[in-house]
């Protein structure tokens, strides 16, 4: 479902067929999760296919590699150009793009010596989360920032996301709300979170979250609409029963929440400022003005 016999990927200097690509079994990326990656979306616009916030995503990829001591020499411009080339070769417009940086064969716990860049893409028209999600506070915490570089998007980090997300699904919820080690709300398994109260949006301050590019875009939109936003630490109790809430991320876009721990958000989504932000975001990714 991610690729077929004709799908083209970029791998370490060449465009090759996805079906012909392989990976080395003797590497730290596979064994220890020592890889960095991005999740990017491209959209069909009246000016052609446009990658949303390519610069921000590729700057974060380079920063993630740097924080992990993985050598990675591509420039943001090279990465962006290669991605447009990849989309063109596959004939994709609305797509999800997954750049992945893995390390050369080495089973020790030393720093990366050499890295390989893969660029994968598949067609995608929707966010990965439905609107009106029922979410639960997870018993899994986000990784302690003193044990990990939480602002880096690293493969191994997502084992925690899988555990939290699957636990929520096993318990009958759509997604997990994950707390930091002090019990403050951090984020979801793969998206940032906001809640709305009396026309003000609240989102967890940086520290135990992946500072999302969509989160930043939401704050830009709020600034343009004069919607007050507070970056602060708060407990799930403060979020439960608020007017509205949403998850946001490149893949999630803006996904409305129905309830937290079975306590519904109280306002009709259509009447919230969050809905205004959602609409503005969906226009912005297609380069339409607010
Ligand atoms: N938090 C986590 C853990 C994520 O995986 C993502 C998705 N990359 C986000 C937040 C949202 O980040 P962005 O808006 O940059 O996609």
From TrEMBL:
Q: Which NCBIfam families match?
A: ilvE_I
Q: Which InterPro entries match?
A: Aminotrans_IV, Aminotrans_IV_CS, Aminotransferase-like, B_amino_transI, BCAT-like_C, BCAT-like_N, Class-IV_PLP-Dep_Aminotrnsfr
The UniProt catalytic activity note for this protein reads:
L-leucine + 2-oxoglutarate = 4-methyl-2-oxopentanoate + L-glutamate; L-isoleucine + 2-oxoglutarate = (S)-3-methyl-2-oxopentanoate + L-glutamate; L-valine + 2-oxoglutarate = 3-methyl-2-oxobutanoate + L-glutamate
Which protein are we looking at?
Branched-chain-amino-acid aminotransferase
Q: Name one matching Pfam family.
A: Aminotran_4
* Gene3D superfamilies linked to this entry: 3.30.470.10, D-amino Acid Aminotransferase, subunit A, domain 2 (3.20.10.10)
Tell me a GO biological process for this protein: isoleucine biosynthetic process
Necessary cofactors: pyridoxal 5'-phosphate
Record-listed E.C. numbers: 2.6.1.42
Q: Does the keyword Transferase apply?
A: yes
Keywords, alphabetical: Amino-acid biosynthesis, Aminotransferase, Branched-chain amino acid biosynthesis, Pyridoxal phosphate, Transferase
Q: What's one GO MF term for it?
A: L-leucine-2-oxoglutarate transaminase activity
Q: Does the keyword Endoplasmic reticulum feature in the UniProt annotation?
A: no
Which family is this protein grouped under?
Belongs to the class-IV pyridoxal-phosphate-dependent aminotransferase family.
The enzyme's main class, written as a single word, is: transferase
**Chain's role:** Acts on leucine, isoleucine and valine.
* UniProt pathway: Amino-acid biosynthesis; L-leucine biosynthesis; L-leucine from 3-methyl-2-oxobutanoate: step 4/4; Amino-acid biosynthesis; L-isoleucine biosynthesis; L-isoleucine from 2-oxobutanoate: step 4/4; Amino-acid biosynthesis; L-valine biosynthesis; L-valine from pyruvate: step 4/4
């Amino acid at each position: 479902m991610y690729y077929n016999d004709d799908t083209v990927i970029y791998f370490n200097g060449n465009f090759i067929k996805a079906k012909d690509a392989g990976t080395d079994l003797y590497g730290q990326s596979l064994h220890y999760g020592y890889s960095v990656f991005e999740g990017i979306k491209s959209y069909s616009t009246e000016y052609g296919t446009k990658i949303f916030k390519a610069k921000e995503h590729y700057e974060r990829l380079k920063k993630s590699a740097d924080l992990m001591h993985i050598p990675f020499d591509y420039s943001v411009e090279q990465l962006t150009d290669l991605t447009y080339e990849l989309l063109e070769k596959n004939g994709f417009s609305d797509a999800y793009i997954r750049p992945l940086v893995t390390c050369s064969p080495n089973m020790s716990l030393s720093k990366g010596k050499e890295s390989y860049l893969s660029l994968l893409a598949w067609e995608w028209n929707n966010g990965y989360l439905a609107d009106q999600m029922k979410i639960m506070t997870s018993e899994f915490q986000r990784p302690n920032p003193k044990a990990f570089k939480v602002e880096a998007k690293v493969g191994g980090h997502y084992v925690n996301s899988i555990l939290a997300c699957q636990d929520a699904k096993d318990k009958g919820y759509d997604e997990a709300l994950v707390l930091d080690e002090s019990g403050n709300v951090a984020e979801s398994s793969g998206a940032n979170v906001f809640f709305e109260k009396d026309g003000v949006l609240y989102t967890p301050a940086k520290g135990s979250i992946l500072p999302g590019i969509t989160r930043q875009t939401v704050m830009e939109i709020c600034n343009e609409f004069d919607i007050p936003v507070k970056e602060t630490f708060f407990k799930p109790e403060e979020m439960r029963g608020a007017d509205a809430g949403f998850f946001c991320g490149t893949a999630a876009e803006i996904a409305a929440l129905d309830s937290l721990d079975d306590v519904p958000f109280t306002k009709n989504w259509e009447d919230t400022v969050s809905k205004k932000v959602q609409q503005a975001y969906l226009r912005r990714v297609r380069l339409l003005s607010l």
